[in-house]
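Cast an eye over this sequence plus tokens and explain the fold to me:
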Amino acid sequence: MMESSTNTGSSGSAGGASSVNSTFPNPSAVLKPILKPISASERIQALDVIRGFALIGIFFMNIEWFNRSFLTMGTGIPSNVHGIDWLASYFVNFFVAGKFWTIFSLLFGMGFAVMLTRSEETGRAFIKPYIRRIIALAIFGILHNVLLWPGDILYSYAFTAAGLLIILFGQWKWIVASIVGLIGFCFIPGMGSFAAVVGGIAFMGFIAIFIRNERIVSFLGMKMPLFSAICLVITILVSLAALASWFVPAMREGRNGLTGMSAAFLIITFLSAKYHQPAEARFWRAGVLIYSLPFVIGMVFGVIAYQQPLTSVFNSAEAVKLAAEKQAKKEADEAAEKLAKLNPTSSTKKDESKEDKKLPKSEAQKKLERDADTINRINENRKEIEKDLKAMTQANYPDFVKHRFADFMDAPFGSAGQAFAAIALFLIGVWFVRAKVITKAAENLSLFRHIALLGLPVGWGLSLLASSIAVSHAPGVSGDGWQLTQMILNLANLPTCLAYVSIIVLMLYSGSALAKIQVLAPFGRMALTNYLMQSVIQASFFYGWGLGQFGLGRAQQLGFAIAVICLQVLFSHWWLGRFRYGPLEWVWRAVTYWELPAMRVEHKGLTPHLG
């Protein structure tokens, strides 16, 4: 049924052929002399300025979660926030949050491509230094998470960076072998979150087929790229399952997911076939599609959910009663299990008279049980929030670290799941460098102008639309439009992010007073140091083991953030007037290149390098 028509690549790449060998060499082509840290004169203009700008937005966003439990994320503006604090929350939630981590992700993808480009130009090693770079980044992230704050993004970026290696260099045999070999770890007690790693490897391998494979096959009488043919097969299989879910009661609960998945793969099949060429454009096309498609489909289901009446699971007395019964049974079972462990000789028999008979349940009964389970999850989360707040406001530092470590170990690989979203932005960032859009920014100002003129109104327009539907959400409530709001808001992040980046570039090359935004360059050159320094300052100021100022109003939080940023900008200028790298950047480079880079500058006085 499927036969190969053309094959222009080598069989060792993901999926069997490489379409970008001229763009990205195989590992064997770059494993040569040792790669060195770049000199100041080699830095790319604009990247450091953009990175510094992104740090400002990251601070505005993160500071809220040093004054609020991270477990409440996803509920919007708290109902008890009013006045200027509400306005500050609204500004950050709809014009900052989500827009700046996307910029950071773009920058990481650009950094990857810059490092790879230099390795190609010099014929020096890339894979080993970059693996060391990823490991160091993961260690920074774990320490940040455990010692200071659960909202770290570095650990997640380490997984994403590893995924990018799979996409660009992975060979399909090793990808499959890794999935098969690692899947067993998911069944080890306490290692359930490792499934995100295995799923990530499969996902990155799937992207690699699109990015690097040139094979054209004949399927059902149609000629199409191999990737599109695979997607079409998946579309047919998932569509059959989705169709069955509308008629088979036992499959009813998977109806929405299967329907959405079949639609997604149908769209991917069409777009990947139509826009398979040119090969260089696959990076940004894949990135935009991977990022946007889930939210577009989510908007459809969000509209459907918004049409339902406004209800709360807590309004159902039957659901509340059933939830209490389930919780009591759970606690009794846990107590019995503990007793059995303490006294192995004793035996406890279940009261089978109270066991529910395995009779078919009506849809109303299933809904009642789902509502009861939702209530118990919400109540359990409330308890966890109380524990979290106690650790943040009352615990001494050793107890705080124990709390953070326990939370981290509950899902040590959970951050790998964020790589699914970040990889899309990494790919767009790679394209920005490989297409020389950012490396020759002065020659591409027209493109940046078009991106800004299109992206800003679309991004802000979607954000305003989202805010008009809902600005907050109470757990357990449905029909309030919150799902639709989140889908629209997430979709808005990408065009807004690209517009922000474009505006910064245009300001930098404007030749006007706006070009003074270059003052952020040293701040951005020390991004890792400044990012982690922000967390140290916030934790020391807000947490109970520090100065105990937890609960600062939202507007005051932004004032605090602006003050700290100004001091960091001044510090960055002072530091880089004397040293080549920020303290942590120096450590990161030492690990990456496995040598101690020269630290002091030969001439005092700062000459900022924009990039």
